Amino acid sequence: MQPTSKKIYLLSDGTGETAERVLRSGLKQFNGYNTQVQKFPYVTDVTQLQKIIQLTAEDDALLIFTLVDPGLRQEAKELSGQQRIRHIDLLDNVLNQLSLYFRANPIGVPNQMNLVNDEYFKRIEAVEFTVRGDDGKNPKLLHKADIILVGVSRTSKTPLSVFLAHKGYKVCNIPIVLDRPLPKALFEIDQNSIFALTIDPDVLQQIRKQRLKTLMVSNRSSYSDIEHIWSELDWADQLYRRNPTWPVIDVTKRAVEETSSIILQAMADRGLAHSHTEIGQL
Length: 282
Prior knowledge:
Elements: E1 4-12, H1 17-27, E2 33-40, H2 46-58, E3 62-66, H3 70-82, E4 87-89, H4 92-102, H5 118-132, E5 147-151, H6 157-165, E6 171-175, E7 194-198, H7 201-214, H8 226-242, E8 248-250, H9 256-269
Parallel strand pairs: 1-2, 1-3, 3-4, 5-6, 5-7, 7-8
Helix pairs in contact: 2-3, 6-9, 7-8
């Protein structure tokens, strides 16, 4: 039996990323549907809106929109009602409740989340810094870092660093290698900014085997040997015990976003968090 085909159109006066993220999250709860999603970004006038509404009606699609312009949003509601189109206004209740809470009207200007301002350039600077500080390449940067990650190879240090950098944090990460001392500079900075990563040895072995396979390197390397991995993790654990200020985070089966959340919460608890807003556009 062929899966039921459905069409969903996303309409926005910004990039449409917000609508798409919400939709993708919702679609995970429904199996057995062949869903065609089409996005219509940067819709800024009624003529564009009318054409998309007409197409939605002809294709019997579900319409989801994020329109911050009050005139366009009202027009979208009225046209959808006239055409009997099933529609979802993702921002309506949010904006209404915020207006009541702040006792003010929204400005109604789209694309406010990625304006090229000081905040934007700070994020760019953080990403560039983090690239330079990846994998212990430049220990001299440690004293300028907001966050330092330490852990054995393949504990998600680099992707986690990049994720945090996009939130405006300057990040360095230092690999822990068996029987090798860590950079002296690591112990000369604020220890509250250092986070230790660990992982289940069996899971780490599988990750490293896959890494070697990708690089077309023989599995005979000690890199993926379970005894070697146990020794590495034990070496790291001894290091962590000697530095109890470092929170130890087990990244086994944890998404980068979840690990990042743990780190940022710890930073907030220590009064070291930034007040950066999220990246993205409606």
